[in-house]
């Protein structure tokens, strides 16, 4: 039976009228409560402020915060969203009201990429999420686990240094993100699967890197269907189609890893790896994992575990190539502390304050995650004198906090020395100091915070200590960004390297 066209128009007009009334009067009615909503742009009926965001939402939101303040309210389609853009605002949400904002909103990314939110990143706050975090911390991401797999990190860095040395001998460029994705995937693969994921760097590892970048970019998009659910089925931006296609590719890869792992079980008798621990947790009574949980967790580890750290290292190297005096100071510190007769070791890092300052300054200016993964309020609350409705999405603009002129002097300049001053020397990027929260903070802080911080310091330090770096003649360094869950360089960093250490150290 055909539906009358006039009726369709009337229904559409009625729906738009209802949404407009709800949008306009809902905001007014909330102001009659004891506290007002935070200030923010009025927006348009139906779409709200969605049209404001553009291709660089972190930049747009930072600019808007200068007008509306550190806590800003936006109507995004039919959803409420609040943005925190200063350390004090972030502290209010992620510390004072952390429990109320401990869940994540359901989104196309969590549904189509993260196995319907069955992973550690998107799972609802509760027993299953706590089990995933506990297993990850005890066996992979926590302090003791990181100590246990230190030899694996050292061995994989050996492979990386040798590969770069070969490129140097052939006078070939090092494409930094490709090399980093390769080494980090193998580090994680050794711990999770007891094997290197890629035996040689080539088309397979490059395809994996491209898949990871695509996932982190796509998952960062502001998808219209997430904010206007009634039109989600239209997939106006084509985002969900891309997510479904990419998910199939990752699912094939992860399923293959799991099947190959089962076949080699006899080789690991008495020496279980992380996947063995996860598989055993399928039979843990009330707190058990499904195979979907396991796949989703592996996806978390192989994507966020490789991309966020590699992007930070790439930005750090790029800033040093842009500021050769910084690279020279880093070399001088390392030569003084380590010398040139051996490679940098993890135990050296604590004796290298300038290297640590470079890493902190990289996290400040180029945070791996410019906007934290959104959270959502379970109940209405009052934050710093403002009323926050139930089901309000929270976004913390980590990028804006790192460039806040009220917090940082000359925030657009890359100045590692700022972290050597008495004022900033004790600032820790692992979630306790809200001036620098590249991994987030609170209950939903990135589970891999310890690992990410260590990998950036160790790998960046090794690359700087082991090699001199030089851009190709006539090439101007491009420092433009591409927005996503991870902040990518628009143009991959490529450079020539020359070994600095004794030949047998870099061989």
From TrEMBL:
SUPFAM superfamilies for the chain: Cytochrome P450
Reactions catalysed: a 3',5'-unsubstituted flavanone + 2 reduced [NADPH--hemoprotein reductase] + 2 O2 = a 3',5'-dihydroxyflavanone + 2 oxidized [NADPH--hemoprotein reductase] + 2 H2O + 2 H(+)
Ranges that cross the membrane: 7-30
The protein's Enzyme Commission number: 1.14.14.81
CDD domains xrefs: CYP75
Keywords: Heme, Iron, Membrane, Metal-binding, Monooxygenase, NADP, Oxidoreductase, Transmembrane, Transmembrane helix
This protein's pathway: Pigment biosynthesis; anthocyanin biosynthesis
Cofactors named for this entry: heme
Catalytic class of the enzyme: oxidoreductase
Coiled-coil features, chain-numbered ranges: none
Pfam families reported in the protein's UniProt record: p450 (PF00067)
GO molecular function annotation: flavonoid 3',5'-hydroxylase activity; heme binding; iron ion binding
Binding, heme: 446
Recorded family membership: Belongs to the cytochrome P450 family.
Job of this protein: Catalyzes the 3'5'-hydroxylation of naringenin and eriodictyol to form 5,7,3,'4',5'-pentahydroxyflavanone and 3',5'-hydroxylation of dihydrokaempferol and dihydroquercetin to form dihydromyricetin.
Protein name in UniProt: flavonoid 3',5'-hydroxylase
Species of origin: Hydrangea macrophylla (Bigleaf hydrangea)
């Amino acid at each position: 039976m055909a539906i009358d066209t006039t009726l369709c128009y009337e229904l559409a007009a009625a729906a738009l009228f209802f949404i407009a009334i709800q949008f306009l009067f809902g905001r007014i009615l909330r102001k009659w409560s004891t506290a007002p909503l935070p200030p923010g742009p009025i927006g348009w009926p139906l779409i709200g402020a969605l049209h404001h965001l553009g291709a660089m939402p972190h930049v747009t939101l930072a600019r808007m915060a200068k007008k509306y303040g550190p806590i800003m309210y936006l109507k995004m389609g039919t959803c409420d969203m609040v943005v925190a853009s200063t350390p004090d605002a972030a502290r209010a949400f992620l510390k004072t009201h952390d429990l109320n904002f401990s869940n994540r909103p359901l989104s196309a990314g969590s549904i189509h990429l993260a196995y319907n939110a069955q992973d550690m990143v998107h799972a609802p706050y509760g027993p299953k999420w706590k089990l995933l975090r506990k297993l990850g911390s005890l066996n992979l991401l926590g302090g003791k686990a990181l100590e246990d797999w230190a030899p694996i990190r050292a061995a994989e860095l050996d492979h990386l240094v040798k590969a770069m040395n070969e490129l140097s001998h052939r006078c070939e460029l090092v494409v930094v993100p490709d090399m980093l994705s390769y080494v980090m995937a193998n580090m994680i693969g050794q711990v999770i699967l007891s094997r290197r994921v890629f035996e040689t760097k080539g088309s397979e590892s490059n395809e994996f890197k491209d898949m990871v970048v695509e996932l982190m970019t796509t998952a960062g998009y502001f998808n219209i269907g997430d904010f206007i659910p009634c039109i989600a089925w239209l997939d106006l931006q084509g985002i969900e189609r891309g997510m479904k296609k990419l998910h199939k590719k990752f699912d094939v890869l992860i399923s293959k890893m799991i099947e190959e792992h089962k076949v080699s079980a006899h080789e690991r008798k008495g020496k279980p790896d992380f996947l063995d621990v996860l598989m055993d947790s399928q039979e843990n009574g009330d707190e058990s994992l499904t195979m979907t949980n396991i796949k989703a967790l592996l996806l978390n580890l192989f994507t966020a575990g490789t991309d966020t750290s590699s992007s930070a290292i790439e930005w750090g190297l790029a800033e040093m190539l842009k500021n050769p005096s910084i690279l020279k100071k880093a070399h001088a510190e390392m030569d003084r502390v380590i010398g040139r007769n051996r490679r940098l070791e993890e135990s050296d890092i604590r004796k290298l304050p300038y290297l640590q300052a470079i890493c902190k300054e990289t996290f400040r200016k180029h945070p791996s995650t410019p906007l934290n993964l959104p959270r959502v309020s379970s109940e209405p609350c009052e934050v710093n004198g403002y009323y926050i409705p139930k089901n309000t999405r929270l976004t913390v603009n980590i990028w804006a906090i790192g460039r806040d002129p009220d917090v940082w002097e000359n925030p657009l300049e890359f100045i590692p020395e700022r972290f050597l001053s008495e004022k900033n020397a004790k600032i820790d990027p692992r979630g306790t100091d809200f001036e620098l929260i590249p991994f987030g903070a609170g209950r939903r802080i990135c589970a891999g915070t310890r690992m990410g911080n260590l990998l950036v310091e160790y790998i960046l330090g090794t690359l700087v200590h082991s090699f001199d770096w030089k851009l190709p003649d006539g090439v101007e360094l491009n420092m433009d960004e591409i927005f996503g869950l991870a902040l990518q360089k628009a143009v991959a960093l490529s450079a020539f390297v020359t070994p600095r250490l004794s030949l047998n150290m870099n061989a």
